């Protein structure tokens, strides 16, 4: 929707004079600027979260590689199977992001 069409939808008429035309143009410019700023902020946040996820993968991988489980019997009370599943889910999430 153009600024002119937006003006029509809000005020039920097209901009009539130079002041209204300028106001409509400024609304469009503000919307574009705000959208661009939000996209930059969102991209930075996504990169930050991806970095945290990669650190999580490294930390869980390191813990699992230590293989220092002292759980008695066949079951694990240390949470190892859960961490293995979580590690796989984190890796899948990172792979999906890389493919998109």
Describe, in short, the structure shown.
With 100 residues, this protein is mostly helical.
The proportion of strand residues reads: under 5%
How many whole angstroms does the radius of gyration measure?
A: 26 Å
Q: How many strands appear in the DSSP assignment?
A: 0
Give the overall shape, derived from the CA principal axes: rod-shaped
Largest sheet: none
Terminal Cα span: 28 Å
Helix content: over 70%
Characterize the structure shown.
It contains three helices and no strands. The protein is mainly alpha-helical. The chain has one domain. It has helices spanning 3-11, 18-66, 80-99.
Key features of this structure:
rod-shaped; mainly alpha; 100 residues
Itemize the secondary structure elements and their pairings.
Blueprint: H1 3-11, H2 18-66, H3 80-99
Helix pairs in contact: 1-2, 2-3
């Amino acid at each position: 929707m153009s600024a002119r069409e937006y003006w029509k939808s809000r005020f039920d008429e097209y901009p009539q004079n130079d002041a209204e035309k300028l106001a409509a143009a400024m609304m469009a410019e503000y919307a574009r600027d705000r959208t661009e700023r939000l996209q930059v902020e969102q991209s930075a946040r996504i990169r930050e979260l991806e970095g945290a996820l990669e650190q999580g993968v490294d930390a869980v991988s390191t813990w699992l590689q230590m293989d220092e489980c002292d759980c008695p019997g066949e079951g694990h009370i240390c949470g190892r199977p859960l961490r293995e599943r979580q590690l796989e889910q984190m890796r899948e999430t990172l792979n999906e992001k890389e493919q998109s």
